[in-house]
């Protein structure tokens, strides 16, 4: 078996309680906006705060978190993944709401040399996921930096790669689907070993002869509402928008929507919405009952429910 590296690269947004916010649109530096939280020196901020690296060796991985907490915003980070054999290098972004675990997850699964890289996405509501979509990346994420973004406003969450949307999760609270509206998020990222489960179910183990494994970050930017004790205006109310804060009401225009559909058509390799073996009824088990009640008794009930799910969640 070829040598391999089983790595998890973990980028997350975790909900924290707060009530007062102000807008920030300034480009960030890692010195100003990031704290390295663990790794005993394996995480480093370099080049006057313009570059951050996380490393993993057999003894430990490393990680960081944002100094600020965010409620709504557009977060961008450029990332260059671990080069070489990097099975299950994982980029993971999620929203977490208290014990109910509001999460939106995107993961980049690394590979053995020559295999495609897989982008895995999922959305959790009240601790339940089962909304996976997976894509083969259309580039080598180890050859250069690429931009991974999350746009989160009161209407939707959009995940993008290099400014191309790949998935949209709409706010459907009106039909009983929880959506993060009142809890700010903190950004976390970590690099750690997961060879007990990540690569081919744990069959492929980390080849530590290639360690240390290093991932690099740059151009962190947060156009967002951040918690502040000096502001009296909650960001939950629509702010006075400048061109830099258009994300607060942004939606996909026709061109962006077509680009997203093109990515899904050409690079999607798994969609929970079409997994009839996993979901024999053609829908995930945690669809809110309001949807079933809305179409119950209709002649094409099953077809209408699936159409609704695809338009809102797929």
UniProtKB/TrEMBL annotation:
Pfam families: Glyco_hydro_16, XET_C. Glycans are attached at residue 111. Keywords: Apoplast, Cell wall, Cell wall biogenesis/degradation, Disulfide bond, Glycosidase, Hydrolase, Secreted, Signal, Transferase. Gene3D superfamilies: 2.60.120.200. Residues 24-217 form the GH16 domain. It comes from the Eukaryota. One of its GO terms (molecular function) is hydrolase activity, hydrolyzing O-glycosyl compounds. The keyword Chloroplast does not apply. Residues 1-26 form the signal peptide. Contains at least one intrachain disulfide bond essential for its enzymatic activity. Its EC number is 2.4.1.207. One of its GO terms (biological process) is xyloglucan metabolic process. It is found in: Secreted, Cell wall; Secreted, Extracellular space, Apoplast. Its main location: secreted. GO terms for cellular component: apoplast. It is an enzyme of class 2 (transferase). Catalyzes xyloglucan endohydrolysis (XEH) and/or endotransglycosylation (XET). Cleaves and religates xyloglucan polymers, an essential constituent of the primary cell wall, and thereby participates in cell wall construction of growing tissues. Belongs to the glycosyl hydrolase 16 family. This is Xyloglucan endotransglucosylase/hydrolase. It comes from Papaver somniferum (Opium poppy). The lineage of its organism: Eukaryota, Viridiplantae, Streptophyta, Embryophyta, Tracheophyta.
